[in-house]
Structure formats: C-alpha cells, structure tokens
Amino acid sequence: MSRAFPLSRTTGPVSEEERRTILAAPGFGKFFTDHMASATWTPAKGWHDHKVTALAPYSLHPSAAVLHYAQEIFEGLKAYRHADGSVWLFRPEFNARRFARSAERLALPVLPEEDFLTSVEELVRADEAWVPSSPDEKSLYLRPFMFASEAFLGVRPAEQIAYSVIASPAGPYFAGGVTGITLWVSSNYTRAGRGGTGAAKCGGNYASSLAAQIESRKNGCDQVLFLDDTGGEGDLEESGTMNLCLVTSAGELVTPALGNILDGVTRDSILSLAGEFGLTPVERPITLSELRSGAADGTVTEVFAAGTAAVVTPIVGFKGESKGEGYAFTIGTGTPGKQTLAIREHMLDIQYGRAEDVHGWMRRVV
Ligand SMILES: Cc1ncc(COP(=O)(O)O)c(C=O)c1O
C-alpha cells in the first residue's frame, strides 16, 4: 500500500514576483522550488517519516557514508503544463522501476514504486505554481535521489538512508532552435565495465565521466561518446547523459542494446514510436567502424541522442583519436536530420498534450 507524504507548507515561500522572474528564464538546475519530499530508512523501522516540507539544507555528519563511498542513486523526470493548465508527468512508473533497480545495484533499500510516485506527485502539487506554462518547452524538472546518510566509516551497506525529491524549473533546452552537436569518441576513458554500475543511475558514473567531458571540450566537441571496453574495437555505448540512436538507409532505427548503458525512458519511448515514422526499431551492438563506414557510404543517414533533458539532440559529427591519429567525420550533410526533428516534435507533442497519448504514457497530477 502506498504511503502518504503529508504536506507542511513552508512559512517562507519565494515571493510571487521573484518566482515569476525565475520562470521567465529558469535555465537548468539553478533555481529550486519551495518544498521537498523526503523519507528515511533504517533496518529497524524500514521506510518512515514520509513528508513534504520546506526545502532546507541537510545536516550531515562528516563521516556520512555517501561522502566517502558514494552509495547514492538518483532519477530525473519532468512535469509538463498543458494548454488547459493541467500538469502531467511522462511515464513516471518507468523512473520508479529504474530507481528500484539502481537501489538494488547500489545495495540501497528499495523504495516501493507507489511511494516514489506519491512523493513526486505530492511535491508537484505543493509547488504547482512553479510548473511553467506551455507552449515554450519549459517544464519542472524533478530530481528524486537516495543516499547513505549513516555516520559510519566502514565499507558496508549503510543503515540509515535518506530519500528526497527536489524540483527545479527548466527552460527550453534549445532556446535558439534545435542545433546539432559533435561527439568526442573517448578512447582514454570508459563509463562502464561488465558487472559494473553502467545500467544504474548512480552519482559515481557521472563523477567518472567528467574527465572525459573535459577532454571532449578541449577537442572542440560538445559531449562524449563512450565505447564498451570489454574487448574488440569498442561497441558504441551512450553519451554523458543521453542514449544514442542511428537512422539507416534501410529504414531502421538502431540503438545499442541494454546491458552496460542506462535504460533511458526516452530511448524506450522512441523505440515504441519508430513504426509511426516508417522505421523498424532494432536493439543490437554497433561498432565504431560500422558507424564510421556507414557515415562515409551514406548507410547511416542520421544520428541523434535521446534523454529527458533535451528529448532528442541531433548529432551531426564525431571526432576522436585512433593510434595517435585524430579523425573526424560528419553524418549526412552535417545538419540535423529530418526524421530526428520529426521524432523530437512528436515526443514533445505527446508530453505537452498536443498529440493523442495513444500509449497511455501521461499521468495527470494537477
Ligand atoms: C547516462 C545516461 N544515459 C541516458 C540517459 C537518458 O535517459 P532518460 O531518457 O531516462 O532521461 C540519461 C539521462 O538521465 C543518462 O544520464
């Protein structure tokens, strides 16, 4: 049975005027709403102290396990306001299930999926005024997370765990129109190995991706493309915060198979939608040389990345290094692909209630 997250309203909310200024240009991850949802877990009491309260800093002992051993997981999803003022989540059940799988991998207690959903929904209801209005692709980004808060310097699963959800208004990802990006194919760094945490959404994965991100910027690229490191010449995995999809001249939408990568909700949804664009969805390993030769001979017609933040980001080129030699190649004409842009628009139309939700993906909150 799901637990309630009772609301104690803040006595010091951000003024309406300030909130309006923030919502006019929220950017990403810079501003936070008035409340947070939370719950605590201990072996003796299980999950308890469910609540929605004023957003406030934590008080953590310097020995808190998360600060030393990174026993932590998180999620990311958005609330969208439709033209009639209602507020909706996109497939939050998918995030709830993925959060449970991440918890198991990081030896954290599983939060019941219903509690995940209730915490997110109650926070959105409490901070409804922070959900920006459509139609300009703004949203309220929701960040559920869980970490080892126990004060103990021993390497074992912690016995006091904090769960919270915070919310941050987000602006349109491509404010000046959708542009294509170039990926740096990292040969110095990998993101995940067999048996590692690649499929979990844990902070450590992102910490270890930052050096590669710096390398990609130094080489004039926008993001990293990670390769599999388990032998062979390296299968394509994913970008720093997005899954990878290829469109081929044979009418396929190909994406790397699950295993060491994040099971993205955007990736999964696009696989379901592929048929509507005349594309056959295919999940399989893709090698770097297949991508390079496909780009050269035109069998790979479009490439894009998929994730909650940007929905769909066209990838127009790749750069990398092989045996000490730099290389670079473009996809098609080096501009965003037609199918890519059409899929992006369709996903946004579903999320903002402009297209019929035939898959039953949207969940109304307000
Ligand atoms: C490593 C990684 N891959 C893929 C994704 C895309 O996942 P989703 O579509 O669920 O946002 C994300 C974003 O959360 C990510 O961090």
Automatic annotation (TrEMBL):
Its EC number is 2.6.1.42. It catalyses: L-valine + 2-oxoglutarate = 3-methyl-2-oxobutanoate + L-glutamate; L-isoleucine + 2-oxoglutarate = (S)-3-methyl-2-oxopentanoate + L-glutamate; L-leucine + 2-oxoglutarate = 4-methyl-2-oxopentanoate + L-glutamate. The modification N6-(pyridoxal phosphate)lysine is found at K201. Belongs to the class-IV pyridoxal-phosphate-dependent aminotransferase family. This is branched-chain-amino-acid transaminase. Pfam families: Aminotran_4. The keyword GTP-binding does not apply. It is an enzyme of class 2 (transferase). GO terms for molecular function: L-isoleucine-2-oxoglutarate transaminase activity; L-leucine-2-oxoglutarate transaminase activity; L-valine-2-oxoglutarate transaminase activity. The keyword Protein transport does not apply. One of its GO terms (biological process) is isoleucine biosynthetic process. Signal peptide: none annotated. Its cofactor is pyridoxal 5'-phosphate. Keywords: Amino-acid biosynthesis, Aminotransferase, Branched-chain amino acid biosynthesis, Pyridoxal phosphate, Transferase. Pathway: Amino-acid biosynthesis; L-valine biosynthesis; L-valine from pyruvate: step 4/4; Amino-acid biosynthesis; L-isoleucine biosynthesis; L-isoleucine from 2-oxobutanoate: step 4/4; Amino-acid biosynthesis; L-leucine biosynthesis; L-leucine from 3-methyl-2-oxobutanoate: step 4/4. PANTHER family: BRANCHED-CHAIN-AMINO-ACID AMINOTRANSFERASE, SUBGROUP IIII AMINOTRANSFERASE.
